[in-house]
Design goal:
This protein is of the alpha/beta class. The protein has 15 helices and 21 strands. The strands form five sheets. It has a seven-stranded mixed beta sheet, with helices on one face. Strands 15-14-16-17-13-18-21 form a seven-stranded mixed beta sheet, sandwiched between helices.
Length: 468
């Protein structure tokens, strides 16, 4: 379906409940007539009569395919009503930005996007990894809002040609957290992204992240060691930083000296000495690690192992009595070993220092208020090995902003390196599936299938992991 542009404010003709009950999305109102998009397969004869009597307008319906209509419905109606039209001057109030950030915080949004286009401006929230449009803003108010953000972030309001980065400390209604600000010049006005570095404490507890009992026990045992190397792998946005912060929170005791080098520092932890990476002045992971070793550390966290120098120093540091945590980009837990080998590290050094390697992904959870049961045959995917016959699918309701999902959970592949696996590393073995099965190591695929079997997520959400 071609992209449909709904004028700001017109969707307010119906409440969210009415729009979904009528299967109508208002588009235009002129001289007693209301033009709407409707859904293919619906009969609108009785609806036309009802709206003519109750609302006094003549209804015109342009029918859209079902998938296109539902996509547009999710775009136009969430949060208990239509997308708000903020062109009435409310944007200009000093309180608007604070209320917006507070709303995003309570929705567990990770980012706010402010975007300007030729005919309109909008605000989107990233919730559970997906962007959802929340507000429409008048063009005449957008520049004032951008300047307000820049002032709070100590940025240059006169600079509109170059990107800028800053931070805002948010403190309102007992909510205290940092907001990272990024400004990017675009053709119709600057695009602003606010990253909310919130401190939802329940998200920084290992017990709440998604480990099963065996995985959590293996991970806790590994991090209790006084020295060694622990690696977490996964793509960007897979929750690696959250796992690391939850680990540091667990280990943050008075008798531990903890140092971190991060890019960027996402959460500030009292009692942890955190350093922001600044490569432009020579403060790299490698140079910071060399200095850390002169700071009498017990535990060191490196934001990422990116190059051979950092990898070698991390291994050397773990050999000299330090517990090292870091992330690395691989597809599986065992892939960490191959990545270190590719960086030129000797296999015997990896075997002697690596305590545990772990892979993780984030999976969206179905909304408990609206999820609907189905059989695997309905999706035509019952042939996939291990897929349970009874499944649940996303539907969408006001509680989940019509996405069908609410919250996310990590799925893990936790691989503690015992003597047999250390021997496999020394011998540079690549095919270890049988060895992992023998030790009862649950793969990412098996962890995802467990969520599916428990009815917590949908087949569509875990399908990428099932096909890996």
């Amino acid at each position: 379906m071609d992209e449909k542009h709904i004028p700001a404010g017109i969707t307010g003709f119906f409440t969210a409940e009415e729009a979904r009950a009528y299967h109508l999305i208002p588009v235009e109102r002129n001289a007693g007539e209301l033009k709407c998009y409707g859904k293919k397969g619906c009969c609108y004869d009785s609806v036309r009569e009802e709206i003519a009597v109750v609302r006094g307008v003549k209804l015109q319906v342009e029918v859209l395919p079902e998938d296109g209509f539902e996509r547009l419905m999710r775009q136009c109606y969430r949060y208990g009503g239509a997308i708000a039209d903020m062109s009435d001057g409310d944007v200009g109030s000093s309180d608007f930005l604070s209320r917006l950030i507070l709303e995003a915080y309570h929705c567990y949004a990770s980012d706010l996007h402010f975007e300007a286009y030729e005919e309109r401006c909008r605000v989107r929230f990233r919730i559970d990894g997906r962007l959802l449009e929340r507000y429409a803003i008048g063009k005449e108010n957008y520049a004032a809002l951008v300047n307000q953000i820049k002032i709070l972030a100590n940025l240059d309001i006169s600079e509109k040609r170059l990107p800028q980065d800053g931070r805002i400390f948010f403190n309102r209604e007992a909510c205290r957290f940092d907001v990272r600000v990024s400004c990017l010049p675009a053709i119709y006005g600057e695009k602003i992204v606010l990253r909310l570095l919130t401190r939802h404490t329940e998200l920084l507890d290992l017990d709440n992240l998604g480990f099963d009992d065996r995985q959590l026990a293996d991970y806790r045992e590994a991090v209790s060691n006084p020295h060694g190397l622990i690696l977490i792998s996964g793509p960007t946005g897979s929750g690696k930083s959250t796992t690391l912060y939850a680990t540091l929170r667990l280990l943050n005791r008075e008798d531990n000296n903890i140092l971190t080098i991060e890019d960027p520092v996402e959460y500030t932890l009292e009692g942890v000495n955190q350093v922001q990476l600044k490569e432009e002045i020579g403060l790299t992971f490698g140079s910071a690690l060399r200095t850390f070793l002169r700071q009498d550390p017990d535990i060191i966290m490196l934001g990422e192992i990116r190059d051979t120098e950092t990898a070698r120093m991390a291994v050397r540091s773990s050999l000299t009595g330090h517990l090292i945590f870091s992330t690395i980009h691989t597809n599986s837990a065992w892939g960490c070993v191959a990545r270190l080998t590719d960086m030129g590290l000797h296999s015997f050094l990896i075997a002697d220092t690596l305590l545990l390697c772990m892979a993780q992904r984030l999976v969206r959870l179905l909304c408990p208020h609206c999820k609907c049961g189905m059989n695997a045959e309905e999706g035509g995917l019952a042939h996939l090995a291990g897929v349970p016959r009874r499944l649940f699918r996303a539907v969408g309701c006001e509680a989940c902003y019509y996405t069908g999902y609410s919250g996310r959970k990590a799925v893990y592949e936790v691989l503690p390196v015992d003597s047999r696996l250390a021997l496999a590393i020394r011998n540079q073995e690549t095919e270890i599936a049988a060895l992992l099965k023998e030790r009862g190591i649950k793969t990412l695929r098996e962890s995802a299938l467990q969520l599916l079997e428990d009815g917590l997520t949908s087949l569509e959400e875990v399908l990428p992991l099932l096909n890996e």
